[in-house]
Fold:
Amino acid sequence: MLTKKRKPTAKIAAESLRRTAVRAERLARELRELGIERHASAVDAAAWTMTEAAIALDESVAASS
Structure:
C-alpha cells in the first residue's frame, strides 16, 4: 500500500536544518581533531549556511502569520 507523503512545513524544515547544522558542527570538530582543517572549514561553512536557511525560513513563517 502506498502512503501519501505530506509536504513538509517551513517550521519542520527549519528544525531539520538546525539539527543537521548541529551534527555538521560536531563533525567539523572531529575533523579538526584529526588534523583535517581544510575539510573541517568546508563542513563549518555548510553548517553556517544551513543555520542561515533555517533563520530565513523562520522569518518567512513569521512574516506570513
Observations:
- The chain has two helices and no strands.
- The chain has a mean pLDDT of 92.
- The two ends are 36 Å apart (CA to CA).
- The chain has one domain: 16-64.
